[in-house]
Structure prediction request, 298 residues.
Amino acid sequence: MNNQADKLRQMALDVKNQIEKEMAQEFKHTRVIVIASGKGGVGKSTLALNISLSLCNRGKKVILMDADLGLANIDIMLGLLPKYNLHHMIQGKKNLKDIIISGPGGLSIIAGGSGITELANLGDNSLKKLLVELGKLDGEYDYMMIDTGAGISKNVISFLLSANDIIFVTTPEPTSMTDAYGMVKTIARKSTDKTFYLIVNRVVDNIEGILVAEKFKLVCEKFLNLHINILGYVVNEPLIGEGIKRQSAFIDIFPRSQAAKNINNIASNLISSNDKSFPRDSSGGGIKRFFKKIIGMA
Ligand SMILES: Nc1ncnc2c1ncn2[C@@H]1O[C@H](COP(=O)(O)OP(=O)(O)OP(=O)(O)O)[C@@H](O)[C@H]1O
Ligand SMILES: [Mg+2]
Prediction:
């Protein structure tokens, strides 16, 4: 008798656990993070790739999207040759899984290519199809990192306005900081629902890293009434270019270097910032929502 009751109790518990698991999965969205800068050449692509890999090394599932229309440089950095990009998917020539390539450390990479400019001109049916396809990625990955080109082009702005989390990259150079500030200001004026992060790249040492970041943060607080989260800094490391020559990621070749430690620190900070800013409610984030926003459907 007792045995029977135990069995029933266990069954009820299993059902309850299963329902809870499914509910949790239903609300799991991919955290979309866009990397941007005011001035070009400050290290966005280098950081996007290495932070993504560092997240993978921490057990996270990451997809890196190259949305830079100028040069699709993430794949070149790794010596990967993607035959297809978002353009081919939009044209209906390829499926989503055909345009995702495997990078090192379990990292998935997806090239935007000219597909990104085409998004604005798609008809309703193609858009819906695209959203259904891209929506399949939602929840499958923990993070989607999006590397953009520099400056305030229309595309970059629409990416920034669609994301929940934006990482601004600057170097300590005054022109880079001024341009980054201009960019933060533009986005902050147009939207209030974002979390802003800052990385200072190519600093001489940690003192410069902390000083520049704090200064930037203070200026944003004082003049824009905006809180910017300092994610960290990365020292100037001439060997970072070496990674590209060897077509591997820097943190994999020089894991003990100061710059690799800085990058790992940034990845950890990003993960711990999760609790505060993510997950949001079911409508707040995710890949599908991100693309819906870009094409003006959300
Ligand atoms: N911490 C660093 N130390 C030394 N060199 C660096 C560092 N970070 C990036 N670089 C170098 O700076 C150059 C520009 O980097 P990267 O291409 O990542 O910048 P970007 O912001 O993506 O440029 P773009 O705006 O053209 O897309 C590269 O040669 C790269 O190796
Ligand atoms: Mg770049």
